[in-house]
Specification:
LicD/FKTN/FKRP_NTP_transf; seven-stranded mixed β-sheet; globular; membrane
Length: 383
């Protein structure tokens, strides 16, 4: 009888232990699900590799050097790393219903769209994109591909949208001032298809001017503003002393200066369907220039009118349902090939995502790009 009671107690204990284990397992699963839901619908975290990825056998390896910019290339080399951007899924271009810059009979500009609405029409956006692409192709064709980079709102757009900031109204590049005369000489040869306005401290590349009959039409031409035309691409210039890079337009109020290693060597980044040179550390470059990159600004200036406009600032999370933003994470299932010449770079994943609502997101595309390894951070882009 004692033996029977002992066996009964053992069976009860075993059953209780199994029950407790099941409860613990269910609790753990619940915690994991809660965390996944939290990070999927509330927070999107930006971070890059903290350590050197292992080149584990069987895991695809991407060489960050594939993204390095070299001057003699006529275009970015085609490889498994630099994907064909045309083949990716892209959102429809956010464009204004009517061309910006239309004037009434008294010569007054018609009102511009509200803050954070697209400024450029379809044709104006296409012209601005073409100005940037033509400039890039011309620079590479003349062996100057590593002497310029995306800049300003265009670089910030590449980082946050893989394209234009939806409410931006121009394109920007930053060029080595030591080749300014050569660049101007090359660009003057593009006339009459493109026009160049030279000044200090920056130049402007723009399209042929519209004629009287085209003033209310949406055509891929520029509209007269001051002594040049809009849409245009700003060509800014930099100096370098080996330790720092400086925009020559810097002033005591706006000191646009970066340590040399943040800028060079240049690496390719996507902007629309094409690859363009960009600073080595795009995130830190933008951070120095703009401060919080998760804050979406509408600057108090209109290039359409070349005049002051209303300033606005919101956290980008407030626009995440309206426009796709780029999420930055480690490249899953891919290791970074390490060489002595890769400048401590690894590859990280960038996904273009629209948060339709709190329960649904749409990912348009994902690709891996070269990023610095030696900067470990966690950054909320939008929540």
């Amino acid at each position: 009888m004692l033996l029977t009671m002992s066996q009964g107690n053992s069976d009860n204990q075993a059953t209780s232990l199994k029950f407790i284990k099941a409860l613990v397992l269910i609790s753990c699963i619940g915690v994991v699900i809660t965390l996944l839901q939290h990070f999927n619908s509330i927070q999107i975290i930006h971070f890059v590799f903290a350590g050197r990825p292992d080149n584990t056998s069987g895991i695809p390896s991407i060489d960050p050097d594939d993204f390095r910019v070299f001057p003699s290339q006529s275009s970015p080399k085609v490889s498994a790393s630099l994907v064909d951007l045309e083949s990716l899924d892209w959102p429809e271009d956010p464009v204004a219903a009517h061309p910006a810059g239309i004037q009434n009979l008294r010569g007054e500009f018609l009102p511009l769209p509200p803050a954070y609405e697209p400024v450029m029409s379809d044709a104006q956006r296409k012209l601005t994109r073409r100005l940037l692409h033509t400039f890039s192709e011309t620079m590479f064709a003349n062996g100057l591909g590593d002497r310029f980079m995306l800049y300003g709102g265009t670089l910030l757009g590449s980082y946050r949208h893989h394209d234009f900031i939806p409410w931006d109204d121009d394109a920007d590049v930053l060029v080595d001032v030591s080749i300014r005369d050569k660049v101007r000489q090359i660009l003057f040869k593009l006339r009459p298809h493109y026009n160049l306005y030279t000044s200090e401290p920056r130049d402007k590349l723009y399209g042929p001017l519209i004629n009287q009959a085209e003033k209310e039409l949406d055509v891929e031409k520029s509209r007269p503003v001051r002594m040049y035309g809009w849409p245009f691409m700003d060509i800014c210039y930099f100096t370098s002393n080996g330790t720092h890079v400086k925009d020559i337009a810097s002033s005591p109020a706006q000191r646009f200066i970066w340590p040399h290693e943040i800028v060079f060597p240049l690496y390719f980044r996507p902007f629309g369907r094409h690859w363009f040179p960009a600073p080595r550390d795009t995130w830190l470059f933008n951070r120095i220039k703009y401060g919080l990159v998760e804050r979406c600004l509408k600057f108090g200036y209109s290039h359409v009118r070349e005049a002051n406009a209303k300033f606005a600032a919101v956290m980008c999370r407030q626009l995440a349902h309206k426009y796709p933003f780029v999420e930055h994470t480690p490249c899953r299932g891919v290791s970074s090939k390490q060489t002595e010449m890769n400048f401590d770079m690894v590859v990280a994943e960038e996904r273009l995502v629209l948060h339709v609502n709190s329960n649904y997101t749409r990912t348009y595309h994902s690709l891996c790009l070269a990023v610095p390894r030696n900067r470990v951070k966690t950054q909320i882009v939008f929540v």
